[in-house]
Amino acid sequence: MKLPDILEPVAGELKRVDATIRERLRSEVSLINDIGAHIVSAGGKRLRPALVLLSARALGCATDEPVLHAATIEFIHTATLLHDDVVDESALRRGMKTANAVWGNAGAVLAGDFVYSRSFQMMVDSGRMEVMRVMADTTNAIAEGEVLQLLNCGDPDVDEARYLRVIELKTARLFEGGCRLGAIAAEASASQQHAIARYGHHLGIAFQLIDDLLDYTADPAVSGKNLGTDLAEGKPTLPLIHAMKVGQPEQAERIRQAIRDGRIDRLDEVLEAVESTGAIPYTRALAERHSRDAVQALSDIPDSRYKSALLELTRFNLMRGV
C-alpha cells in the first residue's frame, strides 16, 4: 500500500495543514518568503503531521485543534532540516537544491531560526500549557541529539548504544511528541497519552533504522537517497557499527578508515563488508522489533480507520527497506 492510501482518512486535513504552513510562513522579509516558498515546493511525506492527526482522531478528537498542532510539528521538522543541511554541507534534498546551496549558510540558518520561532508562536496560539511543555522538552531533546550526532561523526568507536541514543533524541522524540500532541487535543487519559506516545517513539526508531539501512541498500532512482551519503558525512550508523563488530579485522579497519575520512571512494568495499557480515538483516531485525513494540502500544486503543492507518504505517516503513 502506498503512503497516500494509508493517510487517506486524514487527507483533507493534511491539505488544511499545508494551507496553514503557507500562511504561517509569510513574512515581511522577502528572503524568508523566498526560502519558505522553496520549502513548500520541496514537498515531503508530511508523515509527522499525519501522526498528529491520526493520533487525535484515533482517540476521539472531533475539533480542528490537531491541524494547528500538525503544522507546528512540521515547522519544527523543517527547521531541523534547514540546520542539518548546513551542518552536513548538503547540496540536495528530495531531488532539489537545499536552501543553503541556493541562499548560503547564513540565509538557511536564519530562515531555520524563523521557522523554529514561528512554531512556538503557534504553540502559544493553542492556549495549552501542556503543548508548550511537551514541545519544549521535545525540541530540547532534538538539539541534544543533533549535537551528539555531530560528536559521533568521524568517530569509528561509536557503539550501538551511542548510535541508538542519537536516533532516540533526534528522530523518535519528534514522532513521540507529535503523537502526544494528538492525544492532548483529544483530551485523552494519561494512559492513552502514554500509549500513543510509546507508539510514536518506537515507530520513530524503526523509521530511522530503515533510513540508515537505505544508505546501503536503496536504488537512488526510487528512494531519492544516494548510496553512501551517511558514509561520506562520516556517520557511524548501525550497519557499519555491526559490520565492524563481527567482521574480519581487515573489514573493520576498512570501515574505520572510511568513517574517519568520509571515504566515499571505498564505498564498494564497505558495501561488501556490510553485506557479508549480516549487518543488513541485523539492522532490519531491530527495526522489526521496534515496529512490533509500536503495534503493541496501540493494543488498548479502540479500533477505527485511524488506528488502522497507524498500524499500517509500521508496515509501510518496513517495506521501504525491501
Radius of gyration: 20 Å
Q: Give the CA-based shape.
A: globular
| CATH fold node name | Farnesyl Diphosphate Synthase
Mean pLDDT: 91
Number of strands: 2
The named CATH superfamily: Farnesyl Diphosphate Synthase
Helix content: over 70%
**Any idea how many domains?**
1
Widest sheet: strand ordering: 1-2
Strand-pairing-aware structural class: mainly alpha
Q: DSSP strand (E) fraction?
A: under 5%
| CATH level 1 name | Mainly Alpha
Low-pLDDT segments: none
Order of helices and strands: HHHHHEEHHHHHHHHHHH
What's the architecture in CATH terms?
A: Orthogonal Bundle
N/C terminus separation: 14 Å
How would you sum up the major sheet?
2 strands, antiparallel
Cofactor: Mg(2+)
Protein name: Polyprenyl synthetase family protein
Keywords: Magnesium, Metal-binding, Transferase
Pfam family, one: polyprenyl_synt
